[in-house]
Design brief:
Blueprint lengths: L5 E5 L12 E2 L8 E11 L2 H14 L3 E9 L2 E7 L5 H11 L2 E11 L1 H27 L3 H33 L1
Parallel strand pairs: 1-5
Antiparallel strand pairs: 1-3, 2-3, 3-6, 4-5
Helix pairs in contact: 3-4
Length: 174
């Protein structure tokens, strides 16, 4: 009905666990933390507010991950914003709201995985270096091919682990 506030869910990560979340790192004491915020607000004009939130995300260096118009009077928008801007964006969203229905914040610590994966990359790189030395001294083609095959396998492993490190770093930044 006209004049009644409508519910708009906002702030989601790229891998939502619920209708509304956002990721932000908490980098203190060299920790790799991701903060998820699930914010549900009521607004008078969900469509206009989705546009307003989209613009806010872009202004803050973020982007819209997903939007959804659930029913005429309800919408959902998932955004990602830089970690250091999340609290400011949340304050702005609370100001846009007619009413904050719910706000849930949770953090996930990826420090151990980040550290472990980084150490494994270094160990694998040391192994590749040793294999290259063996390769340079290989006298038989068969030995050289076997060593090269192992180097290729390990380099693939390194690339996979580097991709994971990159993902964790990006998740902690946004």
């Amino acid at each position: 009905a006209e004049g009644q506030p409508f519910v708009l869910d906002s702030i989601n990560p790229s891998t939502p666990r619920s209708p509304t979340e956002q990721q932000q790192p908490q980098v203190g004491n060299n920790r790799v933390m991701v903060r998820n915020v699930d914010l549900s607000i009521e607004v008078n004009n969900p469509a206009a507010t989705v546009g307003q939130i989209s613009n806010l995300a872009a202004q803050e260096g973020g982007w819209v991950v997903r939007t959804e118009s659930i029913v005429v009077h309800r919408a959902s928008i998932d955004i990602r914003v830089p970690a250091d801007r999340l609290d400011s964006v949340l304050a702005t969203l609370r100001g846009i709201a007619e009413n904050v229905v719910s706000e849930v914040s949770a953090s996930q610590d990826f420090t151990e995985e980040f550290t472990d994966t980084s150490a494994r990359i270094q160990t694998l790189q040391d192994t590749v270096d040793a294999l290259r030395e063996l390769f340079s001294r290989a006298e038989k083609i068969e030995d050289a091919l076997t060593i090269q095959k192992e180097i290729t396998r390990i380099q693939s492993d390194i690339e996979s682990k580097q991709a994971r490190i990159s993902f964790l770093s990006q998740s902690a930044a946004f």
